[in-house]
Amino acid sequence: MDTKGILTLQFGHYSNFIGTHWWNIQEQGFNYDSTSEINHDVLYREGLTEKNEVTFTPRLLLVDLKGSLKNLPERGDLYDNSTKPSKGETEWDSHLVEIEHKCSDKKNQFLKDLEDPIESKKVLNKTYDLEKDVTVWSDFLYSRFHPRTVNVLHEYQHGNEHTPFDVFPLGTSLWHTSEFEDEFSNRIRNYVEECDYFQGFHLLSDCTNAFSGLSSGCMEHLQDDYCGKSILAFPVIPSFFPDSEFTTKEQQCHTIINDSIRVLNLALGFNAFNTHSSLFIPLCTGSEGWRQPGTKREFYRTIYNHKLPYHSSAVLAAALDTFTLKHRLKSTNFSLIDLCADLSHNGRKAAAASLCLPFSFNVDASLLECLDNWEGSLSKSITPNCAIGTDRLMQYITLRGISEDKLKLPPERAQKQQNLPAYKCDSIAEMLNLYLSYSTHATINNVTVVHKPLDVKTPYPRIFDQSINQFGYVSATPRPQHINVESIPLLAGLHSGSEVGTMLESLYVEAKRIKYPRFHQFISAGIDKDEYEECLESLLTLTENYTDNYYM
To answer: What is the rounded CA–CA span in Å between residue 357 and residue 360?
Structure first.
């Protein structure tokens, strides 16, 4: 049986890109011996196949549209013992039986190698051209799922422009259909009842389309049926929308309309996250993220293509895996409810996230030397329209991948280092806390240190430049082309401060500008102008919780 279990819910195609990287990262780093810092039972469940084979699969429910799975069976292949039908096996007259063969998508080399008993043992250390091969998230899925994990919305086709799943009320209406709500609710209940102690939910959701409405309906159900359990939600925004590259006036007009629809979905979604979640943290590698994602966030010694979901989702997955470590460690009683309570104090239901990918650390350096020479902030915001401040914050910082023997130089080599106050620190956590106390004002800093680095073997994209060595440290000697980066040190943070209120206010201003009656899709689906105005007022009220005089 499981302890401290958390159920993860993923709604939408981009959320599933992020989730796929996240589960891949975790499985690459599995360590089953007693030295493991991470309690994998928090997010994973143990089971048995019909052949009595032990399985360890994500405690996960994901939702996507028809056509988004390509070669991945809806029930997965882990428990699948079905055989292909043939005319000879049927009891009917063979002349009356017709078997239709559906053309399956061609599998890329990575997926082919996973099916090969010999090659599957090598895939993590091989190089593939996944930038060209990946069109959907299942194209780079290394993990294997339980049969109840995947849920497909057959009413809507992935990539179909004629019947798009694009507006918030379409999602809420679909949730309230008995066919979907009953089945999905039962699957949630099955997972929850398997746990000895159930903490709550991680929820990732696309928030620029109808999945924003679908996830809000689900959160309302969770709030009603699992009262007292925390819901940590991550509304996500892709780093690029293909319609932004228009070439004609007609295409430009179409993009402007789509931009407004995205803003409406965001405003309605954020209001729902505020109402039904315990804490929500918007994520995007774009700097703006409302009408369009804007310019991409740049990370030190990292080269990623923001137009590829395969790349940008890998950046967000690295952050997600890192800042959720605090409530997934064996060594602490800290829980999901503690995190949500601390960061949502005084009604501050939204928070921001930041990332330093990779944590810039010279191969022969000490942490003291690294921090003493650091310029600027430790990490960069990955929340749209939100800078990370340095004053009056509540923040959780997680640093991983730096061993204690790299803390400082020994006395015989320390020289001037011994004159620094930080030289008296006896642990990485103590030193990082000291650094944060100098670089922030009136701030509560909660530091977590995990010695295990982030595993970035295949199928994680090759986005680190040649100055990063095999183990993620900065080296003066360029890494050989045939050597891949296998792991990296990384720092990620969660922050609650006045800047989050500025972010929410910018969304309110953008949404207020839109002439809502022009968007009949929303009104005809049941959200009238008064209800929309009420949503905007709720957003504005939420921003007031972030003013310093209100907080103090």
So the answer is: 8
